[in-house]
Write a structure and sequence with these properties.
This protein has helices spanning about 20-30, 50-65, 80-100, 120-130, 140-155, 155-160, 195-210, 225-230, 235-250, 265-275, and strands at about 5, 20, 35-40, 45, 110-115, 135-140, 160-165, 185-190, 255-260, 280-290, 290-300. By secondary structure, the chain is α/β, with parallel strands linked by helices. It has one domain: Rossmann fold. The strands form three sheets. It has a seven-stranded mixed β-sheet, sandwiched between helices. Strands 1-2 form a two-stranded antiparallel ribbon. A hairpin with a 2-residue loop joins strand 10 (about 280-290) and strand 11 (about 290-300). Helix 1 crosses helix 2, helix 3 packs across helix 4 and helix 9 packs parallel to helix 10 (about 265-275). The chain is globular. The structure holds S-adenosyl-L-homocysteine (SAH).
């Protein structure tokens, strides 16, 4: 019962494409064992509505695939699905590979700015292991910033490639955390999604119902997420709109500016904002994980051919 096909649509380089080998994961991370049981199809699985189980799975996946064996989260923090987060990095690798011929750029000379790295620091940790890239991760929440800094220190294999910087203002993406002369190949972001704490709580209730975990109090925050992680004034479109405006004020800071956009309905407004900002190139990279559709919006003021 150990090999379970995962979701369709993952990137060809995604290590989790062929599903999870729970036997191997438990060998690597025995703390996962109590959470694994056959699901109604008879396949090994965990209860995805139980945040402790999801965290144990994440710890096992990170240890097994990336030798990140000290990853942990503060209680209530956002627990990121690892296959989806690594998929995001693979698509960005293709974006910058497109420029340099076809080989995927690897190594510390590739520099990435991760805006809102979270307590989980997931993109820098996985990106540094997967591709050897260097990261600056920014974070506005002081506790999340401190946690992310601790995670980096706990992983010596990547500690010299990742720097966590504290952003003092929730409405700034670059100002205050990057120096004007710094240059990045990429910026990336998984923006706060909701427009208010109430909306975040409702979204969380909906997700819990969909997972069938409504009766479990443990499931109250199934994938976790403390308020600041989940919402910002104006929600995702306002956050990305600010990012676009601020990127236009520093067009050379990043060769590609990118962000996740979780709602397709926001794209037309954002594309208009990019035209107004005079972005020279705009790309939309589609991500499909099971039934969940998402996309990366990427723009450049300086990319080749622009
Ligand atoms: N990158 C992580 C966390 C995403 S949640 C992941 O993918 O799981 C979004 C994060 O952005 C939160 O931790 C929130 O505190 C942070 N954040 C919100 N506004 C920010 C800003 N202006 N600059 C930096 N971080 C910000």
């Amino acid at each position: 019962m150990s090999h379970v096909p995962l979701k369709e649509g993952l990137h060809p380089r995604n290590r989790f494409r062929n599903g999870y080998d729970f036997d191997a994961l438990i060998r690597c991370s025995p703390a996962l064992a109590p959470f694994v049981a056959p699901n109604r199809h008879g396949n090994a699985s965990i209860d995805y509505a139980d945040p402790d189980a999801v965290k144990a799975l994440n710890q096992a996946l990170l240890a097994d695939a990336y030798q990140l064996d000290a990853w942990d989260l503060p209680p209530g923090a956002l627990c990121p699905p690892i296959p989806g987060r690594s998929d995001h990095l693979h698509h960005l690798a293709d974006l910058i590979a497109g420029e340099s011929g076809s080989a995927v750029p690897r190594g510390p000379a590739v520099s990435v700015l991760d805006i809102g790295t979270g307590a989980n620091c997931i993109y820098p940790l996985v990106g540094a292991r997967e591709y050897g890239w260097s990261f600056v991760g920014t974070e506005v929440d002081p506790a999340a910033h401190a946690w992310a800094t601790g995670l980096v220190a706990a992983h010596p294999a990547v500690a010299d490639r990742i720097e966590c910087r504290r952003q003092a203002s929730a409405v700034q993406c670059f100002e205050g955390v990057v120096r004007p002369e710094e240059r990045f190949d990429l910026s990336m972001c998984n923006p706060p999604f909701y427009a208010s704490a109430a909306e975040a709580a409702e979204g969380n209730r909906r997700k819990r119902r969909n997972l069938g975990g409504g009766k479990s109090s443990k499931a109250a925050r199934n994938f976790g997420g403390r308020d600041g992680e989940l919402w910002c004034p104006g929600g995702e479109p306002a956050f990305v709109q600010r990012m676009i405006t601020q990127s236009a004020e520093r067009p050379e800071q990043c060769r590609w500016f990118t962000t996740l956009v979780s709602k397709g309905a926001h794209l037309s407004r954002l594309s208009r904002a990019l035209r107004e900002a005079k972005a020279a190139e705009v790309r939309i990279l589609e991500l499909a994980h099971g039934q969940k559709q998402s996309r990366i919006l990427a723009w450049s003021f300086t990319a080749a051919g622009a």
